[in-house]
Amino acid sequence: MKFHIITFGCQMNVHDSQWLARALEARGWEEAAEDEATVYILNTCSVRDKPEQKVYSELGRIARHAKRDSRMFAAVGGCVAQQVGPEFFNRFPFVRLVFGTDGIANTPNALERLAEGAEDRVKLLDFMDIYPERDAAVDESTTLPETRQAFVNIMQGCDNFCAYCIVPYTRGRQKSRHPDAVVEECRALAANGVRELTLLGQNVNSFGMDSGGVDVSFAELLRRVAAIEGIDRLRFTTSHPKDIADEVIEAFGELDNLCPSLHLPMQAGSDAVLKAMRRKYDMERYLDIVDRLRQARPDICLTTDLIVGFPGETEQDFERTLEMVERVGFESSFSFKYSDRPGTASVNMEPKVDPTEAQSRLERLQELQNAITKQSLKKLVGLPAEVLVEGRSRKQEGDGVSWRGRDAAGRVVNFTSRRESLTGRIVPVRIVEAKKHSLTGERTGEPW
Ligand code: 5AD
Ligand code: SF4
After folding, report:
1. Could you tell me the domains of the chain?
2. Which of 31, 44, 326, 425 is deepest in the core (most CB within 10 A)?
3. H or E element that contains 145
């Protein structure tokens, strides 16, 4: 059976899709281009209105394949599926499976049964009380990506209920995975040649702080994974400032392979807005974390998420966000206009910010961020960096091959080499130029 997966949203979704592809391949299915597939899988995101609308336009587009092949059917998974559920069956008759985030472990079996005709329609939307373990992601025969990078889930769901956020409703309560299962998966990946690991969860810093009976802290888990032989780079995402422990901050100064970068969503710079958002920290606490991170690891690269136009946000509140973005000096940020999500607390909060005003705030914020990004990248010119090569650059010009990779902090670096195969290797370079969102390097060391 040929399948095609379309993924929206966060790294958790990207990782879920990768796992699903491997699990189907293990059953003899084959990943195919869109025009050649019989089974279409959409892994969806509902964190904001825009990605949710895309699901419907994609399904409209896919509908034409149903005419070409009567066996064709689609599965809708992820956050929108969790919310909308069997409604999809009515609106799009070719949708025959809906699965939520806790249902993914059983999705390969369900797809098989549907393809065999053993079942007509299936929904996998129940939340589980404990982390639903899936089939092992790797064994000795698994071919891993050439880039030698991998994601590992450490938890599922979220208990925070930030006023604007739909995630606790679409991903359920927080469930930490058993630390031994995490470490075992990381070991198996390292044994198969993976050298960069990213630990994933909605709020990794509260690992172990749920009813799952896990008594290992996130800092301890980090230490156990960092000690695995062959892991050159370790990252994790996403962190909530209220839960980051002193030991995790200190780990940035202690663990050589823990990458000097942290994505720490700030959301807003005004204490009044943070309170209304139910973020459970104020700027004093946030800035204290930033200062201590920089003490532990002076070269740490900080990035963030920001929302403008949250209900009740005044011009003064917004200016406080600008001030704080400058004070912290984030290297980059994702910024969004607030959007009402069904069922969340902020839907009932007033006054709503005028959409034109919100748009103008977003533009002002992004302009400031671009200037800060430019400055921070410029400071790196002349410095050495180690680049884990991810593949060939999009643009190829001049002599040699142009390669694209990331430095330890995750910044994109392009450089040229005469070598024909460098993917998955760590290459020393010197930074010679800063572009708008990337760096250019020159090889140092070996005459490559
Ligand atoms: N409106 C706008 N942005 C949102 N985010 C989450 N919910 C909303 C919403 N309702 C943003 C937050 C979060 C990121 C993943 O998406 O900044 O960190
Ligand atoms: Fe989107 Fe959040 Fe769901 Fe990820 S967890 S897919 S960001 S809604």
Report:
1. 2-124 (3.40.50.12160), 129-259 (3.30.750.210), 384-443 (2.40.50)
2. 44
3. none
